[in-house]
Amino acid sequence: MFQSKNLEFREIDPVTDNLQNYLGWIKDPISNPFIQGANSNMTLERLVDYVNKKNSAQNCVLWGIYHQQNHIGNIKFEPIRPELDLACIGILIGETTFRGQGYGSEAFGAALTFFSENYGITNFYLGVDPNNIAAVEMYKKQGFSFNREMSLLHGNNIMTKFSKN
Q1: 99-127, pLDDT tens digit by residue?
Q2: Domain spans in the chain, listed from the N-terminal domain onward
Q3: Domain 2-161 class?
Q4: If both were cysteines, with which of 61, 73, 96, 144 could 159 make a disulfide (CB 3.0 to 4.6 Å apart)?
C-alpha cells in the first residue's frame, strides 16, 4: 500500500498473512503490558474475525507494519469521523526486538502523514498509559500533547494533535 524509509504498510490479510506472531503479541500481557487489548484467552479464530471486521468497517483503517516482509506491528485509525475531521489512532510494535530502535516513531509519523494526505483527516487523538514513557515521548515528538478536557470526558489519559484550521 505505502512505504516509509524502512517499513511497509498494508492491510492485514488473514488468508495470506501468518497471524501467529500477532496472536502471540495479544496473548502475552506480561511482555506487552501496555497493549490495551492484551488477552491471554485470544484464539486464532477470534483474531481472524477481528481483523476481517476491522478490514470491512467503514470507520476503521487497520494496517500491518512490515519490516522486510516480517509483520512487526499494527497501526489502526478508529473511529474515523470525517464529518468532524477527527480520528483515533493506535499503534503496536508487537515484535519486541523492534522496540526502542525508532521503528515505532517512523511508523507512527509515516502513517499519520499518509492518512492525512489520503483521507483528509488532520485532527487525531489517542489513549495512552502515562507510565508508557517511551510511547508518551514518541507522541510528543509527533506533536501530540495531553488533553485534560478529553481525558476527563473519556476517563482515560488522552493525547491529541489538532490542526491549526
Answers
A1: 999 999 999 999 999 999 999 999 999 99
A2: 2-161
A3: alpha beta
A4: 144
